[in-house]
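Contributing new records

If you add data, match the layout below exactly. Sequence lines come first and carry their own label; structure lines follow with theirs. Keep one chain per record. Anything else will be rejected by the validation script.
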Amino acid sequence: MKHLPIFLSKYFWEVDFASLDAEKYPKYVIERILEYGDIKAIRWMKKNFSLDEIKNVLYNTRGLTLRSATFWAIVLGIPKKSIKCLSKPYLEIRKLFWPY
């Protein structure tokens, strides 16, 4: 699984997709698919990463929108209070830069 299938290239527009190594950067790949992925991308992610890896990214990421983080918390059965990007201190910092 070193290289990603071409249908995922639309989620990694700012990097050289051909050289993106999913084994070296699993957090980045999972985070991007959680945020932007369609059903095909999500199926691929579930097939290539363990549920524990996916949950670990969700627990520790700060790169998801509130909407995506909340959605995945519900889908994966994770309490929202245990997800960093949904924690109160992080939300307060976020409001300083984007008060909407």
